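This part of the workshop introduces the protein records we will be handling. Backbone structure tokens are a discrete shorthand for how the chain folds in space. Once this layout is familiar, the rest of the handout is easier to follow. The record below serves as our worked example for the rest of this section.
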Amino acid sequence: MTGPAVRLTWAGHATVRIDDRGSILTDPVLTPTLLHLHRRAGHAPDPSVRRVDAVVISHVHADHLHLPSLALVDAGTPVLLPRGSAGLLAGLPLDPVEVVAGDVVQVGEAEVAVVPAAHPDRRWPWSRMRAEAVGFVMRGHGATYFAGDTDPFPGMANVADTLDAALLPVGGWGPWLRGQHLDPASAAACLPVLGARVVIPIHYGTFWPRGFDSLRPRRFHEPGRQFAVEAGRRAPDVEVRVLDPGDSTEVRLLQADEERDGRQSSCQPRRDLP
């Protein structure tokens, strides 16, 4: 008999639909272009991808909190985003829910736990708008960690008691990777700490500056495969699934629902969506 599974659909960059007793869409970028960037791989996601119980935003950078994409999300959809940034959604028919690390929010029949991240907190380098970056763990039948953008941080081992899947950034959107980002090697180094059974590399191979297609093409094409090689060295028991933008995969679960439902959560307090 086939048991429950977590279904994951990578729409490119940091945009993933997670279906597990509820549905969320992470850091949606749903358009063919993004500022000076163009979608070099895959197509703009099908509208069905954005019909979810909630959207989660990890931080306020424009390639993660992308207002033109959020304008495409169904009216009334709750948007979980870092505390202090709800004003950016003014004028959009969405329901902003400001969160901080430690919050737990009910989404569908699942819970979304907000966890720490280590990434610059300004909207733009010169901006006064600041909001602390976070990550998210969706807990339904299974547990799936979405890191957003982050460096390794103290307490990374504590984002969840167990993880069935992790979505880890391994690159960026340009020929150079700056600031607090994971690359293939540093992301692989996190695997023994996280303890996830299945890991999917994201945040690479989608957007690229116009006119730069021939500059450092390996930086665009190869981070996912490089991560898989590094992961094989550092955490050979972890299954790495390298997807193309638009691909879906299912992670079959090992534990019974009763065992998961009885697990004590370290994230409090719990909050319900309006």
User: Anything to note?
Assistant: Confidence is low (pLDDT under 50) at residues 256-270. The chain has one domain: 5-249.
